[in-house]
Amino acid sequence: MGSAEKPIILYHYEVSPYSKQVLWYLALKGIKFQQCMQPRIMPRPDLSRLGVKYRRIPVLTIGRDVYLDTRHIMTKLSELEPGKGARLSVATTPEQKALQRLFQVFMIDSGFGRCFVQLILYKTRGMMDPEFVKDRTEFMSGAGFFPPEALEAMRPDTIRRVKDGFEFLEQTLLSDGRDWLLGTAGPTVGDIEMAWPLLWMEKVPGARPEEWISEAKFPKVFAWMERFKSTAQKAVDELGELRTLTGEEAAKLILGSDYHESVGQIDETDVVVQHQKLKKGQLVKMWPTDTGSNHKDVGELVSVSDKEVVIEAKAEDGGLVRIHAQRHGFAVAPYEK
Ligand SMILES: N[C@@H](CCC(=O)N[C@@H](CS)C(=O)NCC(=O)O)C(=O)O
Asked: Where is the GST N-terminal domain positioned along the sequence (predicted)?
């Protein structure tokens, strides 16, 4: 894959911190895109129109390919040529690449990122809105964040874990005075992966427990956060005004485009493919296993590799899109009515 001449559309909403990562990535890489703004709670008819059942935000489309999950979206975007004035650096050494992957594991799989969700929800106005609470209870089934008393009970240990994360950055990578976490000339995906919840917490008044986490206690982390914020903001400003599409306009553009990627194969040596006896063209379901798991995409299996599963789904108007999900945190299984 080289540069994407197909339209790139980001489905997101203003206060979504995951979407911010994609937005920063696109801006830091100097890639122009269009956006389709979504409501903060379900339903999202603009995505249903494309035949997408996945409920999480962001979703990114390039041509008629639909990409799920921030991590997978950034991996796909990393295969595109950078635009003019790109500021993004790339991990090149084995240590940088390893650290970048471990940041992802630390942030998502160790539950560190979720601690910020807890601190922020505790202070957010949304918690007063019964519709929001109902929506997110369905979204995070089993997470135990609701009712609000549950957040209160978790709070001391959550604060301890977040403070521990600040200490980790202050006392290891940033301790030698470097600008960016991987010691590169500009920010990398590693900086994006670590910065988003910290900057999100700053935007919600009162979310950061100041007695334990402050600029005075962690000066290097706060300086890095500020550096990242201003560099990302400059990149966003330079990209210029984004074109905002309605759901109808976006769907028309997507369904009228070619595919961005050519068709892949089913890896017959894959352990899940063998176990599930998956075959090309078979009807399958595909869903995230951590949150939003009730929303399963259905379509014909196009390809399975060690990186992704791709299915072909039917849009409401009968047109076809290919939906791509990464392997980590997603499941695929034969569809039974
Ligand atoms: N692992 C997903 C998580 C995305 C996620 O949790 N996004 C939030 C918004 S920032 C979400 O979808 N919340 C429920 C909703 O908006 O319906 C990713 O990296 O994209």
From this structure: 10-84
Residue 337: band (very low, low, confident or very high) from pLDDT cuts 50, 70, 90: confident
The boundaries of the domain holding residue 184 are: 94-230
d(CA 238, CA 310): 34
Nearest to 166 by CA among 94, 237, 219: 219
Mean pLDDT value across residues 35-46: 97
In a domain? residue 193: yes
So what's the pLDDT on residue 143?
Answer: 56
Tokens of 119: 């601190």
Give domain status of residue 218, yes or no: yes
Query: Is there a contact between 299 and 314 (Cβ–Cβ < 8 Å)?
Result: yes
Structure tokens that stand for 202 in this block? 């700053």
Asked whether the beta carbons of 29 and 45 are under 8 A apart, the reply is: no
147 is a domain residue: yes
List the structure tokens of 54. 């996945």
Rounded to whole angstroms, the Cα distance separating 104 from 192 reads 10
The single residue listed with the structure tokens 């999950």 is: 69
How many angstroms does the Cα of residue 42 sit away from the middle of ligand 1?
12
Encoded tokens for 23: 């937005």
The CATH number of residue 192's host domain is 1.20.1050.10
> How far apart, in whole angstroms, are the C-alpha atoms of residue 237 and residue 234?
5
Residue with tokens 């799989």: 109
| Residue 177 domain-assigned (yes or no) | yes
Give residue 217 CA to ligand 1 midpoint distance, Å: 31
State the CB neighbour count (10 A cutoff) for residue 253: 18
CB-CB contact of 34 with 247 (8 Å)? no
Count: domains in the chain: 1
Q: How far is the CA of 268 from the centre of ligand 1 (A)?
A: 31
Which ligand 1 atom lies nearest to the CA of residue 58? 20
